[in-house]
Amino acid sequence: MITVPLSALEVAMVQTGTPAEDTLRDTTEFARRVEELGYLRLWYAEHHHSPAIGAFPPVVLTAHAATLTASIRLGSGGVLAPNHAPIMLAEQFGTLAALHGGRIDLGIGRGPGTFDESTARALRRGAGPATDDEYRDDVSSTLRLLVDEVGLDPLPEPWLLSSSTAGATLAAELGLPIAFAHHIRPDNTLAALAHYREHFIPSRWCASPRVLVCVETVCAETDEEAARLVGPMDVIKAGLLQGRGGIPFPTPEEAAAHSFTAEEAQLLAGFRAHQAHGSPETVAKQLTDLVDLTVADELMLVTPVYSLADRLRSYELVKQHVMMPTTTA
Fold first, then answer.
1. pTM over 0.70
2. 300 and 212 in contact (C-beta within 8 Å)?
3. How far apart, in Å, are the Cα atoms of 96 and each of 74, 76, 106, 262?
């Protein structure tokens, strides 16, 4: 059993041949269900102009889910600072936190949220990628504005998203809890977290290092069924390896018929070795090993599978076989 809290990341995968409205509807059911299952928090990722992922703003999904739930923490995982004015992030998430009982998180990241350069430039009104200094200023300004300008209470809980040592450095300097994208850059995890813990400076936001690790988790009744469900995301990742970002999310049947090159198969196998895929027994061991390796304070599970039913079943199996039962006084 996992003794650290477990949370969920919603990436809103759009099923091939179905309208994006169906995916949006599914996010509502997903929020209700993960709260019932006892997950600590649910975050929404920011993506743009992708045929495989819905372009649903995290602040809007957070606001919607907050009206449908009562206890689960909600927020961004994350909003991408270079795409937004700091004052708008502070006002939006400050308002949500005040409206919804202090259960709102503001996870801030850096990437563009798109693989299309013209879309990235449009999001930034023609500006190029943010420099390290500009990103630091954006994050610092957002935090300052939450306190000095918004003036609402309670404030959202800020987190810094990272997939590298550079992001870990900024989180440590600003005294923020870190959410590390192990599901994207697993090779960077241990070095980045070690750097974060070594250089952490306490702040009003966080008194000591606090680590959330996000891991791709697909749990099914058998290892074989989990492998079938992972297939569509393998096709997406193979496309990314070839520089193709705009690939629709295939069905498991389409994925099963896909041919991978030897290089792709090797890289995908290496990536899967760091994630949690398989039966409840397999996933329980993989997640336990990850907690032991990273000394994470919390795990966030992302489950990019084709159907809502299979995705929810994965979270249910983790709840039944992996999560430590909660106790009440």
1. yes
2. yes
3. 10, 12, 10, 48
